[in-house]
Protein 1
Amino acid sequence: MSNEENKTEYELPDITEKIHCPICKDGIIKINRTIHRLPDGEDILILLMECSNCSYQNRDVITLQTAFKPGQWILNVEDGDLSAKIFRSPEGTISIPEADMEIEPGSHANYMITTIEGILERMIKWAEYFYKSLEDDEDKTIDERRKKVEKTIEILKMCKAGTQKFKVVLTDKTGGSYITTTSKNEKTLVFEEETE
Ligand SMILES: [Zn+2]
């Protein structure tokens, strides 16, 4: 952050951890952040992400009223559009309440750059993996647990197919995560700042 324009009241957190490329997995993502003031006075943050190895490039725009503030993003997916992008910091939790599924920040949690479709694919893969691991389990409650996971997988697949309306909830107390969408419908994406 060297130029004049960036010396504003906004405090952007440093991204110190290496972010691996979501496409080639080998490259490291370089993030370039620029703050712009729009003619109507609103400040936006432009993030340009480039891979050091392949041609992957991603450009996100978020308003600075919501950028990097601690809180919760809620995206309502009602029309089967899975193209909204998610940037999750290692501290962020992503959940889909309808499917009773959550991606928690773990000790090896990494930055994640993906779309809603990518989140659903990941969740389906993990739920199926978890389902298989239940087969070796001698626990008496196994049938019940199997049914619960089956239901989760079924709902996630419906979300992916566009036949189920659902919410994606991204919570980050450190403010390092965000969701961006091209939808102009304000009800689609809501940000609630955490105030203490
Ligand atoms: Zn790459």
Protein 2
Amino acid sequence: MFADYHVHSHFSEDTDFPMELEIQKAIKLGMDELCFTEHSDYDVPTVVNCDYDAYFEEMEKMKDKYKGQITLKTGIEFGIQTHTTKAYEETFRQYPFDFVIFSCCLLYTSDAADEEDSVDLGCRSNIKKKKNI
Ligand SMILES: [Zn+2]
């Protein structure tokens, strides 16, 4: 099986790339399965967190439209911090995700993220890029 289980679309803060174009590209590449894992980062000063309702609505449309051409999965990438795990558990119970990635982009709280004493493991630069667009 040819699949990708870590793809972001315009529902994530780090890209404006439309979901449908990602799907069309995957089909063109001959993929069997594609799982979107949109970013969701609680307690981080991000400009966009995944709009779950809009995301699931769009995914249902895309699943119908591309049925028989590619299998689409609804995933999420939760940016975990120790104090936000409870909130992610609640979100996980509310929505029928097929796949979940837990990532760790910040080692300290979001309030410290823009300060010199925080440790950025890579995501902050993406968030700042998006803010500057
Ligand atoms: Zn990711």
